[in-house]
Amino acid sequence: FKDYLQKTLPKELELDSELAATWNSTDHSRINTAFYRWQKRVFAERHNLPVESLTAKLEDAPHHEGIDYTWPELYDSVEYARFLARVTELSKLYLKRSGMA
């Protein structure tokens, strides 16, 4: 998160006039909004999904050249791998118990 605040966010505000306008007209929650937007872009690119499909409001999180949309601290961590394995396990169990698998 600190890397995002110190390195990525300033670049995004410089490159994205829509984000900058929102940033300048909102309260302190703007940090969470900006970080969430970046997280959606990272997830979408990692899983080859359209960003708009990740929210009910079909919100966009544009890709800007010069911005790093990887998050190895999360996606390459043992904890994340363990989390995914558990979610997969629980999903299979749910489908089996509900008669869908």
Overview in brief:
This protein is an all-alpha fold.
Describe the structure.
The protein has helices spanning 2-15, 17-24, 30-46, 72-75, 78-97. The chain is an all-alpha fold and 101 residues long. Helix 1 packs across helix 2 (17-24).
Could you name the key traits of this structure?
mainly alpha, 5 helices, 101 residues
Q: H/E element string?
A: HHHHH
Beta-strand content: under 5%
Intertermini distance: 39 Å
The Rg value, from CA coordinates, equals 17 Å
* Largest β sheet strand count, sense and barrel closure: none
Low-confidence stretches: none
Helix vs. strand class: mainly alpha
Q: What's the topology here?
A:
Blueprint (H helix, E strand, L loop, with lengths): L1 H14 L1 H8 L5 H17 L25 H4 L2 H20 L4
